[in-house]
Design brief:
Number of domains: 2
CATH superfamily of the largest domain: ACT domain
Radius of gyration: 25 Å
CATH topology of the largest domain: Alpha-Beta Plaits
Shape: elongated
Number of helices: 6
CATH class of the largest domain: Alpha Beta
Number of strands: 8
Strand content: 25-35%
CATH architecture of the largest domain: 2-Layer Sandwich
Strand order of the largest sheet: 6-7-5-8
Order of helices and strands: EHEEHEHEHEEHEH
Length: 173
């Protein structure tokens, strides 16, 4: 079934055309936040065709949504013995040069991080580094992420930071 959308421009056309203070849409119509804002500012009420005020429709999650909610309803727990800090997965890809690993690990040490696992490969002058890191609680995930992503230069390397629980959830089979 094709979904219909009500946009801010649709509401403005209704107002300019001298339409009343009510707009009736199907129950499955998606009303954009901008359309709601324009309607509220103009005093236009958006009602559903079934009667009553329009409500946000339930998202269509697909045919196996119920099973997925039962089996994947929460992020997996960290592995036993992984510590009680925040786990982080750090991936770095770039041109190999002298001191690149030292630069990254020195920043992690200054940030109060404990490195649990290191995996590095160098292929044809480029390196690929994956680190599993635990924050000690004094550094926030956000500050580590912004600091790590600022390391390197445009042509040097690119670093990405992801929360370990999100990483594990994404790679779950």
């Amino acid at each position: 079934m094709t979904r219909r959308f009500l946009t801010a421009e649709d509401v403005r056309r209704l107002i300019q055309g001298g339409g009343g203070g009510e707009l009736v849409v199907d129950a499955e119509t998606v009303v954009t936040p901008q359309a709601l804002e324009v309607a509220n500012a103009a005093g236009v009420k958006i009602n559903s065709g079934a009667g009553g005020a329009w409500q946000v429709p339930q998202p269509d999650r697909g045919p196996d949504a119920a099973r997925a909610m039962k089996t994947l309803s929460r992020l997996p727990e960290p592995e036993a013995g992984a510590g009680d800090g925040t786990g982080v997965i750090l991936t770095v890809i770039g041109k190999n040069r002298l001191g690149v690993l030292a630069e990254i690990t020195a920043f992690l040490a200054k940030s109060g991080c404990n490195i649990h696992k290191v995996s590095q490969e160098i292929v044809e002058g480029y390196f690929h580094l994956i680190l599993t890191v635990e924050l000690d609680g004094t550094t926030s995930f956000e500050s580590l992420k912004s600091g790590i992503e600022c390391l390197g230069g445009e042509d040097d390397f690119v670093a990405r930071v992801m929360h370990e629980r999100v990483f594990r959830f994404m790679h779950r089979v």
